[in-house]
Design goal:
alpha+beta; 5 helices; eight-stranded antiparallel barrel; 20% helix; 9 strands
């Protein structure tokens, strides 16, 4: 959540990642996250999230949401209802409330367009990063996010980032729930090959932008 003075707003930047930086994640246990979107229209979204430490046995990229819900049933450590507004320049309205785990799990089971992912967390300098490894129809997509309590400026971009996608709505979770990565990955790769990675190239890796 944001620092006092900013109210219910989140500040983050997103980057495409080709492969997890396993050397930075040694010994860390990811969380499994299931998100269900009951509204996603013109940047507005209403979401229920279930989150828990992932079981020791790794999930296949093709893992199905129903199987995950059964495997982790009753063990969710974070259950929230979140309302979001459109993102503008890496800033987005976000209001969040905790839910009873049983109610949250049943809501996810009963409706909404869903996203399944593993979330890996790592500290780089003074910034906390999360790397979301998507499963199911969104595999093999990996997106890295850096979130702060205020506007994300003077950011050191790590080597594992390929290109920034903060302003590309296709990479928003509510969009991935409705139109998974598998449906448009080839088109995006063509765009990237035609110069989509120029953002990082122009500034240089590990530069402050």
């Amino acid at each position: 959540m944001s620092e006092p003075g900013y109210g219910d707003f989140e500040f983050e930047r997103k980057f495409l990642v080709r492969a997890l930086p396993t050397d930075l994640l040694v010994g860390a246990t990811p969380d499994v996250i299931v998100q269900s979107y009951y509204l996603a229209s013109e940047g507005y979204a209403l979401r229920v999230r279930l989150q828990a430490p992932a079981p020791q046995e790794p999930f296949r990229r093709s893992a199905d949401i129903a199987g995950i819900l059964t495997a982790v049933a009753g063990e969710w450590s974070v259950c929230t209802l979140t309302a979001k507004g459109p993102a503008v320049g890496g800033t987005r309205y976000e209001a969040e409330r905790e839910l009873d785990p049983l109610v949250a799990e049943e809501m996810v089971r009963r409706g909404g367009a869903k996203v399944l992912k593993l979330r890996h967390a790592v500290w780089l300098g003074e910034d906390g990063w999360v790397l979301d490894e998507f499963l199911g129809a969104n595999a093999p997509l990996i997106v890295a996010e850096c979130e702060r309590g205020g506007p994300v400026t003077d950011l050191v971009i790590p080597d594992f980032c390929v290109t920034e996608v903060s302003e590309d709505t296709r990479f928003g979770n509510e969009h991935l729930a409705a139109r998974p990565y598998a449906a448009w990955a080839r088109d995006f790769e063509a765009e990237l090959a035609a110069g989509g990675a120029s953002y990082l190239t122009s500034f240089g890796r590990n530069s402050h932008v």
